[in-house]
Amino acid sequence: MPLIKTNTNNAIRGRITPNRGEQQNDCADVIAQITFADLGRGAGTLHNVGVARVDMQGRTAAGDANIQVQIGKGTVAAAMISNSVQQTTDPANQRGAANGTISVLNQSMDTGTVWTLTGTLP
Fold first, then answer.
1. Which key words are in the record (predicted)?
2. Cα 22 to Cα 120: distance, rounded to the nearest angstrom
3. pLDDT tens digits along 22-71
4. Residue 112 forms beta bridges with which residues?
5. Is the separation of the CB atoms in 39 and 101 below 8 Å?
6. Helices (H), the chain
């Protein structure tokens, strides 16, 4: 089953909109640093760039990862990454899972809504 990117149309609580310029660039740059290994990490900050950071907020009971891009105490982007996406062992598919995560976080930043990444990779 391929990866499926879905806009939940649920607004991000506590959302802040980065200014056009440094904040937006920092957010895009910190999102681009996400790797497959990050999807398996525990709660805490994964990466920092300038004023932006990517945080693993924790996991759902099903093991889905809650990843958010934040500036200060405000959330810029939010995505839920399905546990099934995190289970692939093939290096090429792991890169695909990381790229899918990057994509849904960028789309979340653009729309102000929470996105999900689901599917099963070999």
1. Plasmid
2. 36
3. 999 999 999 999 999 999 999 999 999 999 999 999 999 999 999 999 99
4. none
5. yes
6. 22-32, 91-111
97 vs 12, 64, 91, 93, CA distance in Å?
22, 13, 10, 6
CA distance between the termini of the chain: 9
Evaluate whether 74 touches 105 at the Cβ level (below 8 Å).
no
Neighbouring residues of 90: CB distance < 8 A, sequence distance ≥ 6 = 121, 122
* Phi, psi (rounded to 5 degrees) for 70: -135, 150
Nearest to 118 by CA among 95, 97, 102, 99: 97
Which residue in the block uniquely carries the two structure tokens 């090429």? Answer: 92
**Average pLDDT in the chain:** 96
| This prediction's pTM | 0.96
Alpha carbons 106 and 113: distance in angstroms, whole number: 11
